[in-house]
Amino acid sequence: MREMNIVINHKLAEAVRLGAEGFDIRWEGLRLTKSGVAADLTISEGGIAVKHNVYLRKDDIRLQFQSTDRSRVELAARLLKRAGVGAEVKRKSDEDVWYVYAYTDVLAAGHERLRKALAEIVRETIARGWIDAGKAEGWLEKLERGLTLKEEWPKYLVRLSSSGALEVKYQSTSSDGIVQEAQRFREMGLEGASISR
To answer: Where are the domains of the chain?
Structure first.
């Protein structure tokens, strides 16, 4: 009697499981807007579908869903989590509107089906000449390769200033987070680590 050993990649196993459960991601409605390009991305599972807005903007891809119905936004966030995107429901401070947003890097860390749908949107936008191909190539690279993000790790902006100096920035709405990162900069020996408001 012959034996057969099967090794299943965990991502493949997840894709098979999601397919068996009727999980689906599709897009439509590509259009120009004042701030760039938009499309509708529908995530569905078990007969429940939520249409999210995808915006290709100057510096990023933003996926969003917002409503005055908090439970609807929570459903949108749960479907995003099923698609591998960690997104939290938040409330606009000056309105009775709830929302969930996800940006380029978080989206590129999502499930392959989500990344594939977003890449199709980007490619179609390039084909129509609606977006700078150089910028879009960076997005495509991230979406095709995928990213692994460590939750709760800070994200920095690193660039050369106009004077040629290396500039490392961290931004947050949390004052505790800013103080903690400034201390981390100092511990790494970075001169001039300061907090600005």
So the answer is: 10-145, 157-187
